[in-house]
């Protein structure tokens, strides 16, 4: 998920992107908790693709905000420090919560109360803890550990730095920036298409590629002055339908030769929404305050939902005695016999996740991100992209 700050609320064309981010974050949360609910569908079963949407959106918004502002090394340092303050407080908080979960698993097992399907401190060991602490896990290991959605935060944090350096080198010159983007996008796309073999860690390439696509999208958006050029909702609606069909019916798998096409479709969706005038129906709907706020707190939704689902799985197994199994990746899966029970369980978990995300945004994230703590927090465009 991407945590980016573009403009204050008030630009409906950008608010539509905020709402898009929030809905995508919810779909990722549902992707990670399939218990047989009516909310679980073919769409949510493939919602891992939404992480790539977050990367594209992040590239678009970062370029929109900073492409012409990073001209000196101090500018780059300030930019990266802002990214750190936006991302790290919640990341390290969730990392410590998952450390507590591992300790709890060890204590419960040591007292012979219950045995965890995944032994404590097995994959979540000291080495992976240090990697997560330094936010380098996505760059050094293809395994998801601890608060597993944070792999995308790791990938994105250093991608910010790489593209910030690109902006610094280019100094507003597209003649310098475009070759850097082309090399990055082409090389990353080839890696994702399997041209460099299947044994490499694809996490960084996945972020670099989609983020670069988003930057190119913003360049096209600015170069051709697309803001407000679409007077009706038709184009945006068509792209929304195309995106849903891509996610729902597509057969493209992560790492397949066709995979690099996915971020291109997402970029077209983002451009269509950003280019649609504020009076269009689709923008008015996307600018509804609840949807916008969901986007504002979507970083919390993305980072917190894995811990909520861990607790819910324990309740389902130990209290409700729901049937469970362990898949090939060591993840515990649950299927309630009653879809209505699954619905209630899932909805309550989503509600708790959204509540915790709201509290996190209000009392944790803005406390560090805002330069003035005395100022009353106001929603801003930007929440990190959920990950799969």
From TrEMBL:
One of its GO terms (molecular function) is acyltransferase activity. The keyword Acyltransferase applies. This is Acyltransferase family protein. Its EC number is 2.3.-.-. Residues 16-319 form the Acyltransferase domain. The chain crosses the membrane at residues 45-66, 87-108, 148-169, 176-197, 203-222, 234-255, 261-283, 290-312, 344-364. Pfam families: Acyl_transf_3 (PF01757). InterPro entries: Acyl_transf_3_dom, Acyltransferase_3. Keywords: Acyltransferase, Membrane, Transferase, Transmembrane, Transmembrane helix.
């Amino acid at each position: 998920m991407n945590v980016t700050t573009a403009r204050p609320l008030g630009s409906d064309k950008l608010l539509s992107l905020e709402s898009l981010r929030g809905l995508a974050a919810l779909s990722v949360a549902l992707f990670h908790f399939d218990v047989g609910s009516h909310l679980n569908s073919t769409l949510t079963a493939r919602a891992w693709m939404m992480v790539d949407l977050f990367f594209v959106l992040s590239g678009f918004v970062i370029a929109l905000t900073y492409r012409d502002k990073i001209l000196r090394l101090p500018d780059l340092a300030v930019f990266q420090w802002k990214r750190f303050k936006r991302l790290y407080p919640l990341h390290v908080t969730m990392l410590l919560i998952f450390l507590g979960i591992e300790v709890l698993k060890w204590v419960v097992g040591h007292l012979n109360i219950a045995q965890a399907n995944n032994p404590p401190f097995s994959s979540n060991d000291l080495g992976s803890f240090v990697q997560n602490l330094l936010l380098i896990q996505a760059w050094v290991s293809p395994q998801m550990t601890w608060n597993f959605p944070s792999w995308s935060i790791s990938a994105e944090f250093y991608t910010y730095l790489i593209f910030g350096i690109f902006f610094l080198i280019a100094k507003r010159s597209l003649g310098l920036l475009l070759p850097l983007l082309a090399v990055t996008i082409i090389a990353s796309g080839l890696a994702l298409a399997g041209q460099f073999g299947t044994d490499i860690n694809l996490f960084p390439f996945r972020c670099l590629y989609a983020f670069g696509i988003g930057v190119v999208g913003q360049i096209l958006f600015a170069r051709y002055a697309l803001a407000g050029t679409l007077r009706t909702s038709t184009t945006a609606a068509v792209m929304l339908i195309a995106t849903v069909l891509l996610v729902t019916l597509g057969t493209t798998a992560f790492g397949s030769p066709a995979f690099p096409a996915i971020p291109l479709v997402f970029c077209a969706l983002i451009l269509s929404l950003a280019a649609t005038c504020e009076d269009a129906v689709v923008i008015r709907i996307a600018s509804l305050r609840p949807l916008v706020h969901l986007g504002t707190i979507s970083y919390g939704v993305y980072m917190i939902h894995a811990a909520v689902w861990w607790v819910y799985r324990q309740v389902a197994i130990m209290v409700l005695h729901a049937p469970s199994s362990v898949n090939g990746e060591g993840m515990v899966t649950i299927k309630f016999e009653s879809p209505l029970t699954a619905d209630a369980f899932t909805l309550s978990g989503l509600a708790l996740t959204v509540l915790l995300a709201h509290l996190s945004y209000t009392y944790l994230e803005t406390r560090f991100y805002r330069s003035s703590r005395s100022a009353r927090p106001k929603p801003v465009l930007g929440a990190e992209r959920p990950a799969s």
